[in-house]
Amino acid sequence: MLAFTLRRAIQAIGVMIAVGVIAFSMFRFAGDPVNQIVSLDTPAAEREAVRKSLGLDDPVPVQFARYFANAAQFKFGVSYQFRQPVSNLLMERMPATLELAACATVLAMVFGILMGVYSALRRDTILTKFFQAVSLIGISLPTFLIGILLIYLFSVTLGWLPSFGRGDVVRIGWWTTGLLTLSGLKALIMPSITLGLFQMTLIMRLVRAEMLEVLRTDYIRFARARGLTTRAIHFGHALKNTLVPVITVAGLQFGSVIAFAIITETVFQWPGMGLLFVQAVQNVDIPIMAAYLLMVSLIFVTINLVVDILYTVVDPRLRSTIRRPA
Amino acid sequence: MTVPVLSVRNLEVEFITRRSTLRAINGVSFDIAKGEVLGVVGESGAGKSVTGLAVIGLIDPPGRISGGEIYLSGTRIDHLPPEEIRRIRGKRIGMIFQDPLTSLNPLYRIGDQIVETIRTHMNLSETAARKRAIDLLAEVGIPAPDKRIDAYPHEFSGGMRQRVVIALAICAEPELIIADEPTTALDVSVQAQIISLIKRLGRDHGTAVMLVTHDMGVIAETSDRVAVMYSGRIAEIGPVQDVVQNPLHPYARGLMGAIPTLAGEDKRLVQIPGSMPRLSAIPPGCSFNPRCAFAFDRCRVDRPEPLKHGSQAVACHLFDTAPHEAAKETAA
């Protein structure tokens, strides 16, 4: 088990180095960084002085090693537009994005699994048909459109919920949370729905398909022949088997929830990392873009690792193959 | 005479499809006495497994029991509400399926699955149920059952898993065990062990066994009586010795003729020409008539009912001696 985790961790580091190369090469391919810093009429000698002081005249591998070593300590340089360390900016914005993503994922998991199980067990009811229709909408409507429709309905027409921002936040250490104030919670509702809807429909469809598959298996038939109660069969035997693949997808989806939060954050002017990234793109603020790329891939890789480990917790068959590698 | 453990009368099972209604079982009747093993043989699709599933109440839509009666120790069980038949399943009727590799839930320890079944049907504490589970595993021949009880299904071989499945089937002392091709998925040496295990359990507990298989060798070894099914009907039923040595129905004769013998010279095995009709195209009269070498006019019109002939009962006009004596002569 330890060997397996270690092997996976080493693979994860390999992936991070590869991403680091891409992030680093952004600096080199998006024009000369010195030009971004100095003004148009700076004399050439001064430009060279800046280049030298920033270490940009060193060989490329040296520059990369320096960049990666700094990145590993969460030092991503200084933002061109804000003139502040990128890591500070990211840290400031991260709680907002993580809270939004977590809330959207919990929403998607809870309702996705409930609706999926229900529509698999009661295949022909009106409610199932309704869920199917909702899932079709959720999977086919683009996120920004759902966000705008929600704003139109609940903010403009009904005036129940705020159309932008995070509401009042409470500071706990370096973390800021909107979960403890009423306005924070109200502000969280629509962005979470917008961000989670696609994941919810995805999970619902996956759970439904998996559950129908599992209900057809021999061990479910045998469980019925053993006279177990319908409840024990559906929720003890079938659901647990259904959740094995759902864990992978839901886990990986959490990564893409954070990545796709860019759109939702833009629509709702949510002060998270996604919005920061969009501003960075508009202003060619490469240190922020590179750092964001690294952060998102770090989150992805971490989630992948956690999912792999979680897999073995749920499925005993994997546990033994890992313990005794073939 | 005592009441048979299982009594099936004129059972009919239909499958409703979009185009038509297919009758998979058409008027099947048989009894199984306490401690008796009834073998049910026939080709794939003859209705053997469906009969077993009908008895235990596991025919799923679009299938349904459309006629006949099923009695368990004298009580009718085929029309019970789902919750009541559920209580009978596993408690009074145990079932063993074909493939032990897929019959057990891969995510739960076998002990948990046995304890769960025991506690569903018997009023036992967790510890008592666990003790009973260990005893059951010992009884079905799992070595070191007190250790193996905490193993997962994938940690057992196929034969061992079938033993676990059998332990699950007998864990609430059922009156009847339905074994649906219990040895088909196993290799030959393990087959013999499983067969003798089922036989021993039936004898020790006085359990009636309905053994569904297409392996005549298994039937000859285990069964007291045998029913030969063809196209949703019983063609012939009787004591295993008589049916194997002296089959009456032309189909049964064909089946027995197709068994290779050890002493056998290099003769070609008998083959029944053609194949079983599809459910949507069952011919009128005797459903075997297109393949039967002895078919005569009446076979193409009249459906034969099982009639007593010595120790056997056979559904064939050749043995309907009374009014149609003349017909038999034309048969050859």
From TrEMBL, chain A:
Pfam families: BPD_transp_1, BPD_transp_1_N
Cell compartment(s), UniProt: Cell membrane
Transmembrane segments: 12-30, 98-121, 133-154, 174-198, 243-268, 288-314
PROSITE patterns in alphabetical order: ABC_TM1
The entry's keywords: Cell membrane, Membrane, Transmembrane, Transmembrane helix, Transport
Superkingdom, taxonomy of origin: Bacteria
InterPro entries tied to this protein: BPD_transp_1_N (IPR045621), MetI-like (IPR000515), MetI-like_sf (IPR035906)
PANTHER family reported for this sequence: ABC TRANSPORTER PERMEASE PROTEIN, DIPEPTIDE TRANSPORT SYSTEM PERMEASE PROTEIN DPPB-RELATED
UniProt record similarity statement: Belongs to the binding-protein-dependent transport system permease family.
Name of the molecule in the record: ABC transporter permease
Organism: Bradyrhizobium retamae
Organism lineage: Bacteria, Pseudomonadati, Pseudomonadota, Alphaproteobacteria, Hyphomicrobiales
TrEMBL record, chain B:
Keyword Transport: yes
Superkingdom to which the source organism belongs: Bacteria
Chief place of localization: membrane
GO molecular function, one term: ATP hydrolysis activity
Alphabetized PANTHER family for the sequence: DIPEPTIDE TRANSPORT ATP-BINDING PROTEIN DPPD, OLIGOPEPTIDE TRANSPORT ATP-BINDING PROTEIN APPD
Boundaries of every ABC transporter domain copy: 8-256
UniProt-listed SMART domains: AAA
Protein name, UniProt field: Methionine ABC transporter ATP-binding protein
Pfam short name (any one): ABC_tran
Compartments where found: Cell inner membrane
InterPro entries xref list: AAA+_ATPase, ABC_Ni/Peptide_Import, ABC_transporter-like_ATP-bd, ABC_transporter-like_CS, Oligopep_ABC_C, P-loop_NTPase
Similarity field: Belongs to the ABC transporter superfamily.
Membrane topology label: Peripheral membrane protein
Taxonomy of the source species: Bacteria, Pseudomonadati, Pseudomonadota, Alphaproteobacteria, Hyphomicrobiales
Keywords in alphabetical order: ATP-binding, Cell membrane, Membrane, Nucleotide-binding, Transport
Biological role stated in the UniProt entry: Involved in beta-(1-->2)glucan export. Transmembrane domains (TMD) form a pore in the inner membrane and the ATP-binding domain (NBD) is responsible for energy generation.
Biological process, per Gene Ontology: peptide transport; transmembrane transport
